[in-house]
Amino acid sequence: MTVNLDTLQASLVLYGLNALYAILLLAIGWYLSGAMQRFVTRVLGVTHRVDPLVTVFVASVTRYAVLAVVGIAVLQLFGIQTASLVAVLGATSLAIGLALQGTLSNLAAGVMLLLFRPFHIGNDVEVAGKAGKVRSLSLFMTELVAPDNTQILLPNGQVWGAAIVNHSAYPGTGEIKVTFPVRAGSANTLANQILEKLREDPRIDDRANAAVHISKVIDVANPTAPVVELTVSATVKPSDADAVKQRVLDHASALLAAA
Fold it and tell me: In what residue span(s) does the Mechanosensitive ion channel transmembrane helices 2/3 domain sit (predicted)?
């Protein structure tokens, strides 16, 4: 078998140049996709009428669309006919769909979340056993930020298929009430100390009306150490209720231990 060195050299040069062009095209396409994503985000953000969740989603779709166009251009650069490629993909679409059914379900769930919008950027939510503030919604993932500033990434399929508790859906305040038993002799002192700490908490909406009082007598069988029940009440934002309750309980426990 005779090898034509001139033909081989020409082929290597041709495919080598095509490879360089492909790498350059991919680099330019990657840059353009990011630039288009930023441009769409800026344009939609200027109007102040488009929900930030929609802005993030549309910008993400724009980036993937640019990358898809660049991918087709790279394939054509190597002489691969896109019509033939579509025919091949059509023949294997069933297998691909079965293999990626989890990913495709996440994509479909992302579209449903965008359409119905059960939450918005910045909302405090609980979903799929996780709690945090919504930061972004992409094609496949929902990003939350936990109270301790931890990133939580949830597949959209889990978010759409689970109960969503949105603490920011309705404006207003909620009331917390925490009760615990104390000895009657130290009840007034503990109540004043807890009230002082409670009114220092900036999460209390109306700190002047926060109250700590003796709600009832629990046990008077022992005259030397009767037990009463203290009730702490305050108004807070619904998203801060659990954190304020925990703070009250921690402070009360520390005071009781010291007493």
Answer: 61-101
Please report the DSSP string for 173-196 in residue order: -EEEEEEEEEEHHHHHHHHHHHHH
- Token couple for 216: 């009832």
Closest CA to 164 of 203, 116, 102: 116
The domain 117-166 having CATH identifier 2.30.30.60: the answer here is yes
Quote the pLDDT of residue 216: 72
pTM tops 0.70, yes or no: no
Q: Which CATH architecture has domain 174-258?
A: 2-Layer Sandwich (3.30)
Q: Where in the chain is the domain with CATH 3.30.70.380?
A: 174-258
**Cβ-based neighbours of 158, under 8 Å, separated by 6 or more:** 127, 128
Identify the architecture of domain 5-91 in CATH. Answer: Orthogonal Bundle (1.10)
Closest CA to 155 of 216, 107, 200, 87: 107
